[in-house]
Predict the structure of Glutamate synthase (NADPH/NADH) small chain.
Amino acid sequence: MADPKGFLTTDREVAKTRPVTERVKDWNEVYVPGSLLPIISKQAGRCMDCGIPFCHNGCPLGNLIPEWNDYAYRGDWREASERLHATNNFPEFTGRLCPAPCESACVLGINQPPVTIKNVEVTIIDKAWDAGDVTPQPPERLSGKTVAVIGSGPAGLAAAQQLTRAGHTVAVYERADRIGGLLRYGIPEFKMEKRHINRRIEQMRAEGTKFRTETEIGRDIDAAKLRKRYDAVVIAAGATTSRDLPVPGRELNGIHFAMEYLPLANKVQEGDLTTSPISAAGKHVVVIGGGDTGADCVGTAHRQGAASVTQLEIMPKPGEERTEGQPWPTFPMLYKVTSAHEEGGERLYSVSTTHFEGDEDGNVQWLHLIEVEFKDGKLEQKPGTERKIPAQLVTLAMGFTGTDQKNGLVEQFGLELDERGNIARDADFATNVPGVFVAGDAGRGQSLIVWAIAEGRSAARGVDRYLAGASELPAPIRPTDRALTV
């Protein structure tokens, strides 16, 4: 155990963010560099080393949280990194991007603020990189088997790294021009600087993983031909079909999916573009959708110099504390103020868009909305609450409905889908096509980064067993496992 009295003597303290007036002028990560080091050992000491650590269950990766908290408290960063990597291929990603269901399940959180697990995690991995403790781990021998991984998001990268280290020859296919999937082009630079992806890719290259960019399976390469070329295939293409808003005026210029808007801003930071073709500069911006992707649009619009930013959410405003209907250790739906929300803008809850209004040139100018409420379990409009707000740029951030079926991948493979429209798989993450497996959002549906990595690791075990007859790779979850929610 770290500090037996730590949870009694030390208050929760999180990473400090840079002043809003400073950070909205650049695209660097919002946190003050190095601000965690003076406080993180004491924060790790708040861990109670519970007899039954529910944080393990809150995290689908099964992270050994009490163990690396103990090492972090004692300043043994190398051992802390070993425990961290034992269950997580990319802790620098999850430590920055995961909403931390582990903290919601922390036993201390029953009646006190939980341990700052995310902050401890990101400190451990950052120190490991700085100390040179993160090195390539190439296999001792090759199996002679080949695997294609379709998609280079967190699920695809995790599967690829696990299979490469097991001795298989792995090639990752990515339809974008750079590796990383939504990590690369869906997550703004101010949430995670892309240097973190780049150095992890270099580690994987040194281990033997091959990468093929600007290659879309189904369009550039026939899926059936790819299957014949490799001994096994892992589909980790994500759930990239954005949910649309079919209301009058949707066809107006200036209304875009979030995943049309955000990647262009990231391409500016990569140096591919001088300015984004879809910019919020000087415009009244409306973001439809109250989740993390919506918040990413809000923060991006601030940095592009929007005249105003308004975020709409059809659901009621969540409470700030757990209710009886969301007991510990479930992941509660609470009111959350992200770094993007700290930077300004307005948030409207319980509202629904009725239609858009444009100018004579076909450009969106106004968004018409109405208040809504739940009655008898149904969402109903409240008469007399109609109004309009200025909207010269609208981003749709309402989630995703499933994997892309327009590019031919599903049809060419001959894949079966489940009742939710995801690619169906069995207990080993195998599809109905022999030798073809699926991991991540393509099989689970839209989910969190920790679930994506856990799926990639688990699918890798299924592939390894298919190719070698047995496997020693870990499988932290089953395809049917779900988060601790109500």
